[in-house]
Amino acid sequence: MHVAVFSAKPYDRRFLDAANATSGHKLSYFDVRLSRETSRFAAGAEAVCVFVNDEVNADVLASLGSKGIRLVALRASGFNNVDLEAAQREGVTVARVPAYSPHAVAEHTIALILTLNRKTHRAYNRVREGNFALEGLLGFDLNGKTVGIVGTGRIGEIVAKILTGFGCTVLGHDLGPRPACEAIGVRYVSMEELLSSCDIITLHCPLTPATHHLINAESLKRMKRGMMLINTSRGGVVDTQTVIEGLKDGTIGNLGLDVYEEEADLFFEDLSNRFIGDDVFARLLTFPNVLITGHQAFFTKEALTSIAETTIANITAFETSGRAVHEISVERISRERR
Ligand code: NAD
Question: Could you tell me the fold of the domain covering 102-292?
């Protein structure tokens, strides 16, 4: 099958080429993000392969449909950037990689917590400059702290397991309890109780209309003063402007982000020779207690191998049977969320 691969970085090419070695699909790589404008690169292909910040809205899908594209293969689990209803209207099948390495994201979440707490990123720079003073590097024991996990799915469950090993009390909030989490002692509570009880809150739910700005001005009023907030899910789950107010008034003592509401114009590119035009993002960078990574939680060898293999399997299955292995549709999602 001829596939136009958008947002293709050198590492995407390496892993997709390896996974495609025995399948023989024709993969045409484009560094640019998919948008209305760049959808012209899909001409001649039968499928497009996209990542988290590609635009797969109604406009783009209409353009893809008119070019004969029949499959959108996401190299991601989250699909908040895809208009599923428009895809259905255009007769375009959408497939994703539902689970690749939940360990990759869970472990990165722990890296953010540990780095923010023990300030190893600041210590690294100090020591290299011959500054061995400890003032400003004071952390706290994770042991005995209460951590709240919002969204106890595949990733949330692993985060819960790791934190239990640290001796934390783990509270969960989800649409329903996950037996594997309950089995290790996760106690399910309301969002209100989670906000008011936790020293650390980490977000692992998908971005949906219900979770958009889940962390907002009302949440801030309930939080423990000086708490740590971690978001490795999707930027839109957090109202960034409100979080900045929380950092300024001390409600939020530490903030770790791997995702950002407006990341599409920033992340995955080297902008080091330009200025950052996003004033909200630039403000975040001024806080010493904010740690941001550029959507790299998924970025391990194991995850990239699995993403590439599942993506190729989706494409092959669609080519041979007309059905991808991991299709998503409006009906399927509403069934799963009931
Ligand atoms: P999952 O589907 O296994 O788990 C998501 C959980 O969130 C489910 O248990 C679901 O019931 C729960 N949920 C849904 N709506 C909720 C709500 N309104 N309130 C509370 N909980 C709710 O997904 P996963 O594999 O664990 O991934 C979670 C999210 O992590 C993805 O949706 C994606 O956005 C994000 N992610 C980020 C990266 C990264 O590199 N930063 C990589 C992969 C996934």
Answer: Rossmann fold (3.40.50)
